[in-house]
Automatic annotation (TrEMBL), chain A:
Domain Response regulatory: 3-118
Pfam families per UniProt: Response_reg
Coiled coil regions, renumbered to chain: none
Positions bearing 4-aspartylphosphate: 52
Keyword Hydrolase: no
Keyword match Phosphoprotein: yes
Gene3D superfamilies hit by this protein: 3.40.50.2300
Designated name of the protein: Two-component system, chemotaxis family, response regulator CheY
Biological source species: Allochromatium warmingii (Chromatium warmingii)
TrEMBL record, chain B:
Source superkingdom: Bacteria
Protein name: STAS domain-containing protein
From TrEMBL, chain C:
Protein name: Chemotaxis protein CheA
Keyword terms: Kinase, Phosphoprotein, Transferase, Two-component regulatory system
Function per UniProt: Involved in the transmission of sensory signals from the chemoreceptors to the flagellar motors. CheA is autophosphorylated; it can transfer its phosphate group to either CheB or CheY.
Domain HPt: 1-101
GO-annotated cellular components: cytoplasm
EC class name: transferase
Histidine kinase domain residues: 466-668
CDD domains, alphabetized: HATPase_CheA-like (cd16916), HPT (cd00088)
E.C. number: 2.7.13.3
Molecular function as annotated in GO: phosphorelay sensor kinase activity
Taxonomic placement: Bacteria, Pseudomonadati, Pseudomonadota, Gammaproteobacteria, Chromatiales
Species of origin: Allochromatium warmingii (Chromatium warmingii)
Amino acid sequence: MKRILVIDDAATVRLYHRGILESAGFEVSEAVNGLEALERLAEGPFDLYLVDINMPKLDGYGFLRELRAKDMPQAPAIMVSTEAEDNDQRRAYASGANLYLVKPAKPAQLLAHVLTLLGARHSA
Amino acid sequence: MAIELSDSTLIARELLSVEEAETVLEWLIQHPRGQLDLTDCTHVHAASLQVLLAARPKISAWPRHAALADWLQAALLSEEHAPHV
Amino acid sequence: MNALLNQFLTEGRDFLEAIGAKLLELERTTDPGPLIDELFRLVHTLKGNSGLFDLPEMTRVLHAAEDLMDAVRDGRLEFSRELADQLLEAMDFVSLLIDEIAEGSDDGQPPRTSHHATDAARLGAALRGFLGGELTATSGQLPASSEPSAAGGGWSLAADGQHLPEAVRMAVQARLTAGEALCWVRYRPEAECFFKGEDPFFQIMQLPEVLWRQVGAVASWPPLAELDAYRCVLEFEVIVCAALEALVEHFRYVPDQVEICSLASASAATTHGNTTATTTADSTRLSAEALESIRVVLEAQREILALTDTPAWFSGRLRAVGATLLGILATLERDPVASGLETALEAALATDSGTYLLRWLDHQTWPTAHAAPAVRAAIVTPAPLGQGAGAPRASDESVKFGRRADDQLATNRTLKVDQSKIDRLMNLIGEMVVAKNALPYLAARAEERYGVRELSREIKAQYGVINRIAEEMQDAIMQIRMLPVSFVFQRFPRLVRDIAHKLGKEVRLIMDGESTEADKNIIEALADPLIHIVRNSLDHGLETPEQRRAAGKSPEGRLTISSRQESDRVLIEISDDGRGIDPTVIRHKAYEKGIIDETALERLSDQEAINLIFAAGFSTAEQITDLSGRGVGMDVVRNAIARVNGTIDLRSRVGAGTQLRLSLPLSMAVTNVMIVESAGQRFGVPMDAVAETVRVAQRDIRLIKKRLTTVLRGRLVPLVALNDLLALDAAQLANDDDELAVLVVRIEKEYLGIIVDDCRETIDIILKPLAGFLGNLAGYAGSALLGDGSVLLILNPRELL
């Protein structure tokens, strides 16, 4: 069972992502900011991270840097933002994101990327 | 496949889709004198449209689809090609 | 309603509230930095949330607000009161949309809010107006109301830029003369639009009757070899035979990318209903596209590997890329070992450089984009069913229920519950209390009618147990119903600010004890009276800065609203340091209005005179303003407070200010009433109004000034017959000793005897307000169900008289 950590301060967005990912059979955990997400890592690495940028306490960039600095198996991370700016995308990649999506990611699109990143088979 | 390619002609059927934009672009770069047959074309995705506009290829047959033909002719036959900035 | 939408609405309201609070705080703070950051984050997140739904109007306004806050955050723009005003107005608009969506959502989808498109455009433009020239050049605004002159502008724009063919010019003129609506549209799709599944050309093709068209590049065309087919550089211009509104609707998903000018005069509003709403590419695009996704993900990894920085987390970043590439290989069902990925990753890690991985990437053969099935054909043709399967399902469906319990850790410990659910609990406990009350009747019947004393005792014992549980349950539900007074207080900062601005007064609002709680009904009943009181204070109490200076006060008036609990009452105090109420003025006003007579004019103490402002028909306003002079006087306020068993007390000193003190019960759900009988019917009278019950001999009742009176404990008490009050056509019955039962009630320190046929026991009831027409009946506080199933009408002595 692939475990995905959804990190977003907006409950609506978490619910949205959870709905999409659970419908595809993934196990979803949530964190409301980067700091809490780091704490969740104690449970062991996740298979994928879905990271918002703007969050209180520790933002998405900060979380990714901390995550990538950890000596643990690294899993792909998708940074989900509301900005379609080149600048943010570069910053996301530099911080350790593997994909940069602009919110709201369409369910099918998001799922396709999740499946690609997890190496899961797409629809038959 | 909605497009058929030869060295002299590109025949587009039904939809010239967003995926085909790159194919069309490649072909037009390699075949600057190539002609387009759009008889059976019903829609050109904007991505493909801008490839056509940038390349301004010779159109051997305009689409039968009247509205599309109107647009393509307005786009490709206009005198003042380079639009104002 | 769908859970996601519900969540959005709830969270949205919270955000709006927080945004409002932060904006007001900003006006006072000396350290705006953290507040501005927080404000930006709130607006940003709310915008993100709205984007999950098809709510272009809301998103548009929020987007503008976000850009504005971003500019403030970056120091490009100074925060100002005007800016706050505009943001508050925008948030009001969003709030309105949220309310509308909450009401209108039936199938889990938000209702269309396109009728607010012009408002959204106006607000968006107003917000962006603060940004000055910075953004206006790139985001064309829809002209919300195109005046004829503006129309001319649009026209010349089209005509001057590129000479219209004479035929077109004539056709346009002819149509305009015929009164048809014509618009000039310029559509510059954003560069990334293809990645969002949009097809701008399709959008353009869907336009109705096009009179003139032009399509080109925003800038000049690059050499073909340098053209990026997937970065949109197109610009469309058309003159189209459609009304402005229809076009705004047509382009509602891309409002920031179009400019629309009405060529017809504003009056020529022809209906062009057949402008079919285009199904956008997004909504028809059902099928996920693995190959497209792989292409995008590969592209991203290339970009990451091409980065030249080497931060502390560099190796983690490389390994994450490795994991991602591994995922792609697995997706393509390729063997990772055979592909040499691991070797390349090790080499990259060893050299601290992405080069080896980049080289590896280039040596692989990746599926090309056009091998992909033409999903985007869905734009014009329905997606083939086979591909439209959508989300793949894991083989084991049950796993999603095996969610780990600690997943819930992330969620808040506070539950948000719909009000109607609490109301239902309340009704249920009400019924429970009633059902419970039937047990003593049952016990009595068991004993008296069936003669089984043993059973009767057991029923009574059981009743005791159920009674205790019911009481605790009731208490628990009451606790849930408790709301903090901040529920009402929270709107005051905004209200006070707006009104003060309007009146040109400077007011400092001080609030205290916002967390004091009381029953929801009490709090809700408090809202209107409190607002009225606050308005009165601002309007009549506090002076203008000039007047205050002249009086030797600080130009800024103070308005204090505080709340605290005292035993089983909630006390709320509203005080100002304004001009106060002059008892002399009140006396004369009251006399002029015929509220008091000449003797009272001299006899009334100052306090009594001040209390006259609670008299019906009294208003101290010298002129009716649009704020508090709506014909609603303090009498209405007092009655509203009294309806929930509250009292109001007013103190004032000329020149020093006015203080109003409200005292309210903590809870009104359970009422202790005395049952009285009159004309064969039973009524309840709330015990807190009852001073005592006495028997008065007929001969002790006298007629003084045509009113029935008697002397009780040396005090003269007026008497009224309940049957007269209720217009029941019967005389009150006396007992065998020719005594009448009298219920003495106390109203505002005055005693009054109500003659009834008999006074009975007191009981606890759950008071329900009278609904429907009965709701308008004055004199009744409500009704309650009794244990035997009958309905008891509860009198409201205050209104009865």
